[in-house]
């Protein structure tokens, strides 16, 4: 706008407010009022300046002229603000807040972070579980123009974000360096999903998108996927427990055509998506760099597994495959494991609770030993792993990189347990061993003695509900006293009601040798209770020598009044912070 227009605008406004007696009478009154006010107060733009800003007294050339013009424009702006706040000249001198006194964008951002109990970070906005309301989301959106370096936004576990997301997404063009967006459990609506889809074009650097635990997404995924620009840079996509439908599965398959850089795909706990798994599997070839595929509890069926196996031939980079808790795939590994053996980079395989048959175990005993990079194997809750005559557990010896083996609730017999114990001798990097809910372990833990001596890296040992006896606990304490199990951090001995008081006494007497132990569970079964014997005093004495211990489970042990008082005062007396779960 030209200077003349600005001047006229200012002149018009001032003329409307000036008393009709005389402009100079008005000026003098204002001047006198200014003289009588406190001299300590910072000088504010006065009505005199406002009045004279309407007149052109001439301007010098160059820099001075520019300053005059800028001053006139600023005074017009001040007038506008004054009018908006209903500050008339009849009410006395106008003192609008100067620009220096108004909070800057950075100050507003810091104030919001302080209100939410968070440290300001211009690159990572972490507001998980902050009880945000719609007004907070609106305020946050207005601050995005002041955060041009922002790379991560996490608004998870804020239910009020749902229905208000569009307020934020329309401002995302101010943060075009955004790489990570997490919106877990935000109660997103169809409108939110649509607005998010529309925002993809203005956040070209987006690599991670987590929409997990938003059940309203189910049936509406196409509102998101159809907006994705081709060549999108997304590397991680998590849509856990979003009530996805078979139709959503088809939309997801189309989405795979435009996100070639995808490395992590998590569709877990979507029970209805299994019906479209064959369609999804066909398009997995478009994401050859996929490293993690999570299909836990996705309602997979036998034909789903067959389609997935065909896709595996295109996923040579796959590091993690989770198809656990899909009970209907049992019996299909014979026709669906041909390409599984070719995953030379696979590090994690989770098959727990898949109802594998004896025939499946035979197939897996031929395939799993070929996975030379495997580090984590979970076969838990598959009864036939223990009863099958196939040498699956014995062949784990061919996987020297294994760090975690979970075979809980597999109905192990003495023969299969012996095979596992022998294979464990060849697993020097073992860190986690879970044998819980296998009754045969009780009284036979000595079979594992050699392996536990060699397992210098073991940190977690789970022996819950294994029918352990006093001899087994004595063996564990003997190992520690000889310098073994030195790095053990978590020991689960719960639900072993078969251990006598004498057995607990021996164990507690040697417990102090577990120097790095942080969690210990000796709870009884839910349906039982038992008086805590004389070993309790040995337990307390041992706890004083376990500096890392943070949690002790003792559920259903009945403590005497004296024992309870000792437990309640233990932390204060010993300057500790152990969580006692009694």
Automatic annotation (TrEMBL):
Pfam families on file: LRR_6
InterPro entries per record: Leu-rich_rpt, LRC31, LRR_dom_sf
Stretches with biased composition (Polar residues): 1-12
Signal peptide positions on this chain: none
Region (Disordered): 1-106
Annotated Basic and acidic residues bias: 58-72
Chain coiled-coil ranges: none
PANTHER family reported in the protein's UniProt record: LEUCINE-RICH REPEAT-CONTAINING PROTEIN 31
Protein name from the UniProt record: Leucine rich repeat containing 31
Protein's organism: Anser cygnoides (Swan goose)
